[in-house]
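Please review this one:
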Amino acid sequence: MSTQPSSTGASTPSSSLNNATDDADSLRRQRILSSKLYFDVPLTKAPIIYSTSYDISFLGIEKLHPFDSSKWGRICGFLIENGTLEKTRIVEPLEATKDDLLVVHSEAYLDSLKSSVNVSIITEVPPVAVFPNCIVQKKVLYPFRKQVGGTILAAKLAKERGCAINVGGGFHHCCADRGGGFCVYADISLCIHYAFIRLNISRVMIIDLDAHQGNGHEKDFSNDRRVYILDMYNPNIYPFDFEARRYIDQRVEVPSGTATEEYLMMLDEALQVAENAFDPELVIYNAGTDILDGDPLGRLKISPHGVTTRDEKVFKFACDKNIPLVMLTSGGYMKSSARVIADSIINLSNKSLITMGG
């Protein structure tokens, strides 16, 4: 009778774990390759992605949240009014399907959105809880899924044109299995995984300049050295996610009351450090305008001109090194936010940091 260890083919716990990871990676790759969210955009179109479906209108109850849920359409309206953008040159994205969302999200999390109560908690609009979920899906979640499609497509467009702006997206509080802070789907994480596979990109830098900490993407990429995160945020406001802060590669904490000049100096220093620390093939720029003076949630004191200068600095950072850049509009809780974003995009166009097509 042999006393040698049995070789029956039974797997060890570590090999089982590796097999499960390989299977998950294979399924993710399959979903990404079969997705219709990437499509060819004619050169006559501008690298501006938007759909009228982005704007949330739900019997007026959307006004119970401080976020301006018609902001996205108003931004495009200002750009068209100014003559910077022609309506026919806007790129319309597709809606992210369940299979698209499963690239990052768990089945359990997506199933949880079939509860209107859960959606009301994530969007921070309590009355949503009382509506049938079919209405919530159409009036609340569909606009978010369209914006996810826009963020994912923006990476392809940025690779082709040098930069692209999704006039929406930037849901940086959502991770694979949890939403919050008006962020239902993890569009930044999804965009990056699509870029890894479809664009053959292996190094991505997230520059998150929304006033709030981007805890969602930080959790999703906590152990992924392909992603470098520069997060410049106010530590004295939501989400107070101390675990996720450990996953930030470059943490720049901006205390309440910080004014424009100091903020821009901090940004210059941060971009210099980032440039020396990491060599990205794609930059995802989360350009929240909740840093504006007077924003009730951001609690910073940055002028509209300061926002324009901030955006210009980030675009130059990427442009000087010929790195494709995706800009997302993210947070901003004042009616004036749409005008400020539009003015910033007009400045980027005037400085030839973005070409509007045609």
Q: What stands out?
A: The longest strand covers residues 227-233.
